[in-house]
């Protein structure tokens, strides 16, 4: 298990080694170390891979996953938060008392792909995009590209959370992630891009590199648009598309 002492040691800045500095935990993120240090699969900051790639090209070879009119090709799993189509957008609304809800693609064998979608918050609330997801009872499990919403001081949108899998696979707490932590735009559309090839997953938030994660457990599955449980939240989704590789 990674201990608090081990994680705190990652706060030391090695000024003569820029590559090592990139893997230091940012001082602004120190408060999250104790919160997650008991999580069994929390990564060692020094061992985390860094995404330095440009965002994939997003105009050629993509298939829309949302027809702009109805929810054909999708089904809700989990709770009873609502999804409806308004003005060519999917609007997901939190229902207080409901568990987290996942509007999930009926096609469930996406393996290698580039996926992109835009999100905007009308009412702030937690969200995310499940990918290579699997059913878990009447809900879901698997990796999720986090979309926390504006104003969250953790600012891990674009990080990878293991929904039903024990917690964070790839938190955005390193110095290398500071631009990604600033990339979300309040009151505007925000683009999440996910590239999965074999055991390698990378994400971008508004074109800024975020996660670089290796995993050979979740190799294919479906996509889900999350509305998290809570007291409020209204998230709009559009331009949902995928290019299978």
Write the layout of secondary structure elements.
Blueprint: H1 4-9, H2 18-22, H3 31-36, E1 63-64, E2 74-78, E3 82-86, E4 89-93, E5 101-105, E6 113-123, E7 127-136, E8 139-147, E9 160-163, E10 167-170, H4 178-181, E11 190-197, E12 200-205, E13 208-214, E14 222-227, E15 234-244
Give a concise summary:
This protein is 9% helix and 40% strand.
Indicate the radius of gyration in whole angstroms. 17 Å
N-to-C series of helices and strands: HHHEEEEEEEEEEHEEEEE
Fraction of residues in helix: under 10%
Q: Based on the structure given, which CATH architecture is correct?
A: Sandwich
What does this structure look like?
The structure is a single chain. The protein is mostly beta strands. It has one domain: Exo-inulinase, domain 1 (Jelly Rolls), CATH 2.60.120.560. The protein contains four helices and 15 strands. The chain has helices at residues 4-9, 18-22, 31-36, 178-181, and strands spanning 63-64, 74-78, 82-86, 89-93, 101-105, 113-123, 127-136, 139-147, 160-163, 167-170, 190-197, 200-205, 208-214, 222-227, 234-244. The strands form two sheets. Strands 1, 3, 4, 6, 11, 12, 13 and 15 form an eight-stranded antiparallel β-sheet that branches. β9 (160-163) and β10 (167-170) form a beta hairpin. The longest helix is centred in the N-terminal third of the chain and has 6 residues, at 4-9. It starts with a helix and ends with a strand. Mean pLDDT is 92; it is low at 4-18.
């Amino acid at each position: 298990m990674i201990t608090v002492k081990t994680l705190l040691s990652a706060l030391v800045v090695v000024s003569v080694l820029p590559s090592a500095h990139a893997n230091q935990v940012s001082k602004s993120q120190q408060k999250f170390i104790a919160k997650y240090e008991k999580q069994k699969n929390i990564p060692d900051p020094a061992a985390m891979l860094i995404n330095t790639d440009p965002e994939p090209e997003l105009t050629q070879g993509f298939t829309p996953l949302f027809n702009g009119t109805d929810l054909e090709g999708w089904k809700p799993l989990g709770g009873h938060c609502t999804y409806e189509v308004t003005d060519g957008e999917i609007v997901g609304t939190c229902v207080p008392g409901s568990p987290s809800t996942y509007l999930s693609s009926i096609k469930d064998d996406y393996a290698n792909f580039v996926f992109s979608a835009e999100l905007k918050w009308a009412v702030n609330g937690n969200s995310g995009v499940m990918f290579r997801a699997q059913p878990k009872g009447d809900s879901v499990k698997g990796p999720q590209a986090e979309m926390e919403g504006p104003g969250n001081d953790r600012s891990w949108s674009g990080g990878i959370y293991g929904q039903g899998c024990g917690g964070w696979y790839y938190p955005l707490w390193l110095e290398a992630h500071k631009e990604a932590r600033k990339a979300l735009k309040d009151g505007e559309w925000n683009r999440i891009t996910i590239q999965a090839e074999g055991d390698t997953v990378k994400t971008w938030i508004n074109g800024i590199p975020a996660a670089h994660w290796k995993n050979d457990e979740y190799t294919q599955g479906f996509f889900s648009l999350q509305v998290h449980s809570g007291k409020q939240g209204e998230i709009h989704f559009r331009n949902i598309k995928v290019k299978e590789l």
